[in-house]
Amino acid sequence: MHKSFNKSARLYLSKMQSQILPISISISNPFFPNRTPPSSIMPASAAAHAGAVFLNMEDGDGDDLSHSSIEDGKKFETTPFLPRVSSYDSVNSTSMASTVTSSVSYQQRRRRAASDSNLSDFPGGRRRFFCHNAGRADGDSFFITRVGSKLWARIRSGYSIITGFLALQCYAILIMPGVLQVAYYYYFSNQVRRDIVFGDQPRNKLDIYLPKDNGKNDTPKPVIAFITGGAWVIGYKAWGSLLGRHLSGTDVIVACIDYRNFPKATISEMVKDASRGISFVCNNISEYGGDPNRIYLMGQSAGAHIAACALVEQAIIECDATQSTTWSVSQIKAYLGLSGGYNLYNLAEHLHTRGPYKSLFYSIMGGEESLRKYSPEISVQDPNNKKAVSLLPPIILFHGTADYSIPADCSKTFVDTLQRVGAKAELMLYEGKTHTDVFVQDPMRGDDKLFDDLVAIVYEGDEEALAKQVSAPSRRRLVPEFMLKLAAKISPF
């Protein structure tokens, strides 16, 4: 009878449709001995619906995923709990095998559903997941391209810096005969007063080049307050020693003003240093035999830009009655700008192709937002600065037509702008001259057109002084011609 009962039970169970999932059972689960089984049952239709919701079926792609889970459920429903051949002969053994099979299968389906739901978190399910990965691959490719382009830009920048440095070294070697002679004059001549302190900041010093009589005669001498160039990075007051050496021989006092360079300072600090130096010259040059009523402000390259900024800024300050000043633009007889740039927006675009690159240029200027403030060409066009423009002294700009470091158009547009707003401005061009020809090579070959023009401007109306300059001996050559021509070809400027 026992065997008959077992046979009947197996027949009944094999024919029974699994409409419920036996979650709760009185027999303990041997696989999970410590887990308390839940006490509820879940119909298959409810399980399928829950699976569909769990799998987040929002579009057509998700239907395939949920349909697969439902089909798996149907297969589970039509499969008997007990296989046709069982090793268990008792009802309890049969029930345990049924429970284990259903529990393990149910857990597997839950794990599969949870895994699939992770994929379905991406819109579109499994297919969208792979599309998303493809998009990510495109993003990675774009990222690699960006990194590669930046790396190439750095390599190119480094190459330009290295080649520029080597060219500068070769240039310095070729003009070294003249540099040594000027350096000897700078350090050992009794006509040079070096390192005169004019402020409390580092490098707030200036050099003064005196005439041969050291300014001891009774006639005050005209003065040129000079600010050297150097791309805002390597400017130094000693770079003006060649100019000081030549002009001091014509009874003109030259004061070369130093200033902090980048990265120790940005353009705002450079302009402040220049303004302090100009103030010292205006208030103290008489002690060195200079005429405080005949002071000419001059700058070369970056120094021309700094000097122009200081001059325009001072004029704007003087229009504000609430601000005190230590010097006045009325003390400046004229502004003399050599090879300068006065519109930083245009200059940034040009320098980006030659160096420094825009990122470095913006850092030197204290950020892109500072370009407008420190562009004299733009400042003089501001209607609010109309009164300040009227205070400016005559402005004379010099530029070589073959200057590729700072094109001559920079001076042309500034002069045109000044004339349009009512300021006195004039442009003097040197045909075929480069950025360094006018200031370095020509003075070293003894044929300095800029020198002659400066003397003519300083002594304008003084026939006796002009006649004296005409009768003066010609200037001596400092460097052989072939070396100067070769230096001009390899010059990085």
TrEMBL record:
Topology of the protein relative to the lipid bilayer: Multi-pass membrane protein
Organism the protein comes from: Lactuca virosa
InterPro entries listed in its UniProt record: AB_hydrolase_fold, BD-FAE-like_dom, GDXG_lipolytic_enzyme
Subcellular locations according to the entry: Endoplasmic reticulum membrane; Golgi apparatus membrane
GO cellular component: endoplasmic reticulum membrane; Golgi membrane
Segments passing through the bilayer: 159-187
Listed name of the protein: protein-S-isoprenylcysteine alpha-carbonyl methylesterase
Gene3D superfamilies referenced in this protein's UniProt entry, alphabetically: alpha/beta hydrolase (3.40.50.1820)
UniProtKB keywords: Endoplasmic reticulum, Golgi apparatus, Hydrolase, Membrane, Transmembrane, Transmembrane helix
Gene Ontology molecular function terms on file: hydrolase activity
Catalytic activity: [protein]-C-terminal S-[(2E,6E)-farnesyl]-L-cysteine methyl ester + H2O = [protein]-C-terminal S-[(2E,6E)-farnesyl]-L-cysteine + methanol + H(+)
EC identifiers of the protein: 3.1.1.n2
Pfam entry (one): BD-FAE
EC category: hydrolase
Occurrences of domain BD-FAE-like (ranges): 206-418
Family: Belongs to the AB hydrolase superfamily. Isoprenylcysteine methylesterase family.
